Structure formats: structure tokens, C-alpha cells
Amino acid sequence: MIALDxxxxxxxxxxxxxxxxxxxxxxxxxxxxxxxLAALGHACRFCLMTYLGVDIATASLFAxxxxxxxxxxxxxxxxxxxxxxxxxxxxxxxxxxxxxNMVFSLIMCLQNxxxxxxxxxxxxxxxxxxxxASTVIFMLxxxxxxxxxxxxxxxxxxxxx
Amino acid sequence: xxxxxxxxxxGKFIAEYSAHLMGAGVHTSRVVRNSKRIGEAFxxxxxxxxxxxxxxxxxxxxxxxxxxxxxxxxxxxxxxFEHNSELSALSWEALDNHLSLEELTEKYRKIVSAPxxxxxxxxxxxxxxxxxFCKLFGGDLISMGIVFSATITGFYLKQQMQKKKMxxxxxxxxxxxxxxxxxxxxxxxxxxxxxxxxTSVLYLVxxxxxxxxxxxxxxxxxxxxxxxxxxxxLLIVSIAIGLSFTLLMVKNSLI
Lengths: 161, 255
Description:
The complex is a heterodimer. By secondary structure, chain A is mostly helical. Helices cover 81% and strands 0% of the residues of chain A. Chain A has one domain (2-156). In chain A, helix 1 (2-23) crosses helix 4 and helix 3 packs antiparallel against helix 4 (82-90). The termini of chain B are far apart. Chain B has a three-stranded antiparallel β-sheet, covered by helices on one side. Chain B has two domains: 7-112, no CATH class; 119-254, no CATH class. Chain B: This is Inner membrane protein YjjP.
């Protein structure tokens, strides 16, 4: 049952990665690698959060690291720069629920100007959601970029035939 | 200099090359590295100052100390990872195989004019992507269907408006509004309607400038990095505006 959960999570993340990648016009040979990286990263974050109880920011950092190292390794096989593979793979991990709650609580804040209790509640909700959403995005980007600093020579010559 | 081409024509080519890379959504350090590499292939020293809208570059012949300056505007291209990887490969090819400027220009034109993925195919893929995104957030099958149709409507609208070269922010506000309005039909059914509404606008998130901005800042190109991040956050604000129009209309049934 657990294995099935992880596999479905990876599958849907792969579909999401391919679709969001297609908006940015990647080369056709990169699609397979994007799917693998997206599935791997999201399944890893899912496992960390569900079974080990890690918080979303730390889990995102680890998922970002896996995607970053994966793109360094797979990039050489299809002659693509790291960013071409890891940006679409990171997109399924954008914390959409928190971003939505951010907008929702902001509107409710403005609607409840005259009710201090409600205002407080939505203000708190707005700040916590903003904080989490931006931290997660920053962690994802830093995690995936880290391998570029660790192995600069390899990262910069991925497209050399 | 190793070749017979004039310094000026090589300068013009490198300027156009680097401006195209910046326009196609490549992070700044890669643009600088690729341009310097092409210069190196001709025995030239290339120095660039990259801004968000222009590039200033000086090309110096290492033997004669002749120099040539160029300033070029960065054109607004759609983001293209294909151009990113093919043009990066071209810079290595220039260095390794010692291509002449004529061959280089010809290959560059061929890469730049290659057709992009068909818009209808992208539309379908984005629909499926957003539907599976809905599933990842815990949505059920009905919400997935609703998100799929909402995304297709919104993204089609976005493609058509972008074809007419409308203002970016208006495009984002309108498509976020339409997509979330379509998704708000989920409130009629007994389903995870809040998740459906939250995911319906996520296909608009400007992920490439957002992540490129973070990379640029971390690598020390703070100016271009913050310019990219500012642009991305303005687009996110536009999405929020579009979404909030819908939320204001349906908020009574959400609480």
C-alpha cells in the first residue's frame, strides 16, 4: 500500500513536470529526464513528510538537492544544461495550497477591517502562509542550484559533445 | 587575430547571441560564460555588463589590442529551453571545432528559426499537468476534471492574448480570473472545491524567472537577479488579483 502511494505520487508529479515544462519549450530529448527527475523529487518529499514527519521546507531542500544532482548526472546524457532539466522538475513542488491561502486570507483581512478578532486571525494566517510559501520556493531553488557550486567544471560543460 | 573576419562583425554576432540568450530566459552567468567562450574561439577577450534590458560589451583583440564596443537591447522572446541548450552547445562547438564566423552565423540562424512545440499540444499537456497537480494536493476525480477544463480554457485564452501582443499583466489577470471562475463551478458539486480553485491558476506561476532570479542573486549577479524576481513577483500579484475577483464573487459559499 505504501509503495503504491509513493508510485502514484511520483507518477502524477511526472505528468505535472512534463506539462509545466512544455510551456517553456524544452528540447524533445529532455522530456524523459524531466519526468524522471520530477517523479523522484516529489516522491522523496512525499516520503520525508508523510513517513518521517519532516517539515515542508527541509523536505523541499532535500528534494531540491536530489533533483539538482540528478540533473547534473542526466544532463550529460542528453546534452542539456542543468537548468533546462531542473526548473520543470521543480515546478510540481511549488506550494500552491499556501499561495492560495495567502491570497484568500489577504482578501478576508480586507473584508473584516472592523472586526478585530477576525482581522487578527486572518492576519496571522496571511503571514504564516506567506512565510512558508516563500521559504519553500527559496529552499527548492537553493537545493537544486547547490550541485552547480560543488562541481562547477562538470556543470558548465554539460552541453559539450 | 586568428581569423580574417573583422572585429566589428564578430562583435555584432556576439552581441546578438548574448541578447537572444538573455531574452530566452537563461541565467546571467551562463550568458556571460557562453559569450566569453565564443570570443575565446576567435582569440578575443570579451567583457560584458549585463542589465535587465540591455547588454554592454567590449571585445578586445588579444594580439593587436584593438577594441570594439557594442550596446544591444534585449528583445522580448518567449522562454525557450531549446534555444538555451542548443545555443550553449553551439558555443562549445565554436571553441572545439574552430568554426568560421559564417558557419557559426548559419548554425545560429538555423537554431533560432526552428519551430517551437505546437501550441495545441502544449495546451493539452498543461491541462493534464494541472489536473495531476490537483491530485497531488489531495483533490478527487471530479475536481481533477474541473481543473482540467478550467486550465484548458484559461491557457487557451492566454495563448490567444499573447498572440495579439497584449500587456503581460492584463493577460495574467484575465486568464487567472477566467480559470478560477471556471474552477468555482466545483462549488456546485460535493467535492474538494477549495483545492480545485487553488490549483486552477497554478499553470500561470512564472517558475523560470523566479528560479533564475534566485540563481542570479546567489551567483552574485544581484542586479539582474532582483530585476527578474521583481518581474516574477509582479506577475504573481497579477495572478492574485485575478483570483481575488473570483474569491470576492463566491466567498460566501467558501466560508
